[in-house]
Design brief:
Chains A, B: InterPro entries: CinA, CinA-like_C, CinA_C, CinA_KH, Competence-induced_CinA, MoaB/Mog-like_dom_sf, MoaB/Mog_dom. The structure is a homodimer. Helices cover 42% and strands 26% of the residues of chain A.
C-alpha cells in the first residue's frame, strides 16, 4: 500500500512559497504505516493535473492532493476533478450552510464566489472543513482513493488529523513502518559511517540506515518495514543500542528531536533554567527554544541587544569592555552571558555576539565571525567561530554552535 | 524552454525534512526566464530515479537534481546516473585534489568513502563544489541538460549562483518571465477578487493573476511571459497601478516582500526605531525582523520575558498591574509596550502577551488568547485576539497581527 502527494499551485513552481504541507503529510502518513512513493508539485494547469493524477495512480493506491480550491479564478482543482471523474458539480447544502455560518459569524456579506465554494462533484464524499470555506473531497475511483484538500496549512492539517487519517486507518490494513532517529553532533557523516561500518553491514535488508547531515549535526535514521510491529521494534532497538554504544560521544539523543528540544528535555530533567543574550542571532535562539510546548519550565527569557548602550543598560556589560575589545569579542560575550544569568536569574545562559552580514565586516573580524559563550553554574565557556557564510546561514549556524557548546557543558555535569 | 526539479532522498518522503531547495531553485530559474514545469521528490531508489528522469525529459529541457551524493551507502544518485548515461565511473584528479585540500585544512584523515567522492561518470562535465566534497555533475543527453547537485542547501545554492545559472544563461536564449506581487492585509481573497473583478477580466491571456492567502495576508501576483521585456514590464505595471488604486486601503506594498520587511523599509524611510517586548511569541517577532540585512538601522533590540518577575525587572511593568489583571491583559501589554520604548529607547514598540498553548489556558482566557499593543510617539493601540489554534500557528498569527497593527498605526502618521 503506497501513497502519493500532489501539491497544486503556481506559487510553488515559481518558488514564492515553500511546500511545507508535503513533509507534514508524509510524516503523518508514515506514522500509520503508509509510505509515500512520490511528492509532485504542479501548477494550476488542468492538463498537467490530470496527467500527474494518472501517473500517480499507476504507482500508488492513495493520492492526497492539496491546493487550488480557493474561491478565485486561478484555482481550478475542483473543476478539473469534476471533469476527470465525470461528476458534474452540484450545490452541497451542508457545505453551503457551513460557509453561510462562517460569514454570519464574521458579519460579512457572502458573494457569488463564496457560494460557488459549496459546489462539489456529484458522487464524491464531501468532508466539511472546520477551519475554512473550501470543502475536502474524497473520491473512490477504480480501486484507488483520491482526496482533494485546501492548501492552507492549518486547514489541511485539521482535515488530515480529524478526518482523513482516521478514514484511511478504517479503510485499510496497513503495514507497519518504524523509524528510529539518532541525533549526533560533532562528527561528519563519513567518519560516523566509518565508525559503524561493520554494524551497517550487518543490518538486514528490510531495515535501511540513512545519514542526514545539517550544519554541524548528523541524524542517523533506521527505517524498518514489515508486519510484526513488536519484532520490528526489537530489531530496530537492538541496532540502535549497538550504534549508540559505538558513537556515544557524539550522540545527543536517540530520538528524532531538534537539538534545542534535546537540551530543553535534559535541562528540565536536571531542574535547570536558561536565559539568552543575543546580538547577531536577533532572537532566533529564543524563538527556537520557545516554539516547543512546555519550554517555559526551563526558559525564563532573554534579551536581544544590538547597541553598546543596550548591552550596558539591559545586560550590565561594562562600557570599558565594549570600548576596549568591541562588541564581537571574548570579553564582551563573557560579560553578556554573566549579565543574562544575573538579570534573568537563571542557572544557565547562552550569549552570542557576531557579524551576521552582509555588512559590518572588518579586516580582523570578517562577516561570519561569531563569539559564543555558554554558562552553567560558575563555569563559562567562550569560543569564536568563523562561519563566513550568508546572513541566514550565519544565524542558523550560530544557534547550532551555541546549543552544542551548552550541551557539552551540561554533559560534564554528571 | 522548461525546467524541472527532482529532489532525491528518503528523508523527504518520510517528512523528516522540508524540501526548501526546490522553492529556492524555482525562484532563481524564474528570474532568468526559465519556468519550472514540475517538482518531483523521490526516495533513494534507483528504478524510481530512472523513471522520474525519463518522465521529466518528456516535459522539460533542463532537469536539475539535488540530493543523494553523500559519501554514505544510502546515497545512490551518482551510481544511478553513471548506469543511466552508460558512463562508467572514473576518478577525477581535480576533484580528488579539492577533497584532499578540504581534509588537509580540517586536519582530518581521509577515508575510503571520501576518496570515492572523487569518482565521476566518465563523460559528464565535473563542476567543483567550493563548499563541500561532493562534485556537481552536468550531463548533456539527447538535447537535454541534466545537472546533479548535492542536497545540502548552502552547497546547492553556491553551485546554482556561481556555476549553473551562468552556464544556463550562456547556453540558451530564454524567454522573459516577469512577476509582480502586491502584499495586502486586512481583507479576504474572495472580497479582494470581487473588488477587482472587472480589472481581472480585462487582463490579457499571457498574464496570469493569482491570489496567495496566508494567515491574515493575501498576496496578489501577476505573472507575464513573452519575449519583449520592456513591453511586458509596461503591461504588468499598468495592471498593477489599476489594482493598487482600487484596493489601496489593503495594499501594504506593491512588492514581493514579507510584512516585516515592508515595515522595516517604511520605518527606515520615516527615520523611526523599534523595539519588542515578547511573551508568548518568545523572540519570533524579533527574529523575523533581524533576519533581514540592515534591520539594525531600525531595530534596537527587545526582551523576551515569561515571568511576572522579569516583566517587572526588565520592562518595568507594575507588580500591581500583573496581580490585578494578569499577564495576558490589556493593562499589562500596554505597560510592556511603554516599558520597551523606555528601556530600549526607541520611537516605536511592539508588545505581545498571550497563551500560545497547548497548556496555560483558563476559562476566561483560553489557549489562543493574545493581547497585542503597538506604540508610536504618544499613541498606544492595544487589541485582543482569539486565535484558538495550535502553538506554532498562534505564534505565527500573533506576529502577523502585531505587524499589521503597527503598520496601520504608522499609516496614520503622514
Amino acid at each position: 500500500m503506497l501513497a502519493e502527494i500532489i501539491t497544486i499551485g503556481d506559487e510553488i513552481l515559481i518558488g514564492q512559497i515553500v511546500d511545507t504541507n508535503s513533509a507534514w503529510m508524509a510524516k503523518e502518513l508514515n506514522k500509520i504505516g503508509l509510505a509515500v512513493k512520490q511528492i509532485t508539485s504542479v501548477s494550476d494547469n488542468a492538463a498537467h493535473i490530470v496527467s500527474t493524477l494518472n501517473e500517480a495512480q499507476k504507482r500508488a493506491d492513495i493520492i492526497l492532493i492539496t491546493g487550488g480550491l480557493g474561491p478565485t479564478k486561478d484555482d481550478i482543482t475542483k473543476l478539473t476533478l469534476s471533469k476527470y471523474f465525470n461528476m458534474p458539480l452540484r450545490q452541497d447544502k451542508v457545505t453551503l450552510d457551513h460557509i453561510t455560518s462562517i460569514f454570519a459569524r464574521l458579519n460579512r456579506p457572502m458573494i457569488e464566489s463564496n457560494i460557488r465554494q459549496a459546489d462539489v462533484p456529484d458522487g464524491c464524499t464531501v468532508i466539511q472543513n472546520a477551519n475554512g470555506t473550501a470543502p475536502c473531497m474524497w473520491f473512490e475511483h477504480q480501486g484507488k482513493i483520491i482526496v482533494s484538500m485546501p492548501g492552507v496549512p492549518f486547514e489541511m492539517m485539521y482535515l488530515m488529523e480529524e478526518e482523513i487519517i482516521p478514514r484511511i486507518k478504517t479503510a485499510f490494513k496497513l503495514p507497519v513502518i518504524i523509524h528510529q532517529t539518532m541525533l549526533t553532533a560533532g562528527l561528519g557523516e563519513s567518519f560516523l559511517a566509518q565508525e559503524i561500518a561493520d554494524i551497517e553491514d550487518s543490518i538486514p535488508s528490510h531495515i535501511k540506515l540513512a545519514y542526514l547531515p545539517k550544519l554541524g549535526q548528523v541524524r542517523l535514521r533506521l527505517s524498518a518495514s514489515g508486519s510484526d510491529e513488536e519484532l520490528l521494534k526489537n530489531e530496530v532497538s537492538a541496532i540502535t543500542e549497538q550504534i549508540v554504544a559505538r558513537i556515544s560521544k557524539y550522540v545527543v539523543v536517540a530520538d528524532d528531536l531538534t537539538l534545542e528540544k534535546a537540551i530543553l528535555d535534559k535541562m528540565k530533567a536536571m531542574d535547570l533554567t536558561l536565559s539568552t543574550a543575543e546580538s547577531c542571532t536577533g532572537g532566533y535562539i529564543s524563538h527556537l527554544i520557545t516554539q516547543h510546548a512546555g519550554s517555559s519550565a526551563v526558559f525564563a527569557g532573554g534579551a536581544v541587544v544590538y547597541s553598546y548602550d543596550l548591552k550596558e543598560s539591559i545586560l550590565g556589560v561594562n562600557h570599558k569592555t565594549l570600548n576596549d575589545f568591541g562588541a564581537v569579542s571574548e570579553q564582551t560575550v563573557r560579560e553578556m552571558v554573566q549579565g543574562a544569568i544575573l538579570h534573568f536569574k537563571t542557572d544557565c545562559a547562552i550569549a552570542v555576539s557576531g557579524i551576521a552580514g552582509p555588512d559590518g565586516g572588518m579586516p580582523d573580524k570578517p562577516v561570519g565571525t561569531v563569539w559564543i559563550a555558554v554558562a552553567h553554574k560558575q563555569q563559562v565557556v567562550a569560543k569564536v567561530f568563523n562561519f563566513g557564510g550568508k546572513r541566514v546561514q550565519n544565524i542558523e549556524r550560530s544557534a547550532t554552535a551555541a546549543f552544542t557548546l551548552l550541551l557539552n557543558l551540561l554533559k560534564q555535569d554528571v
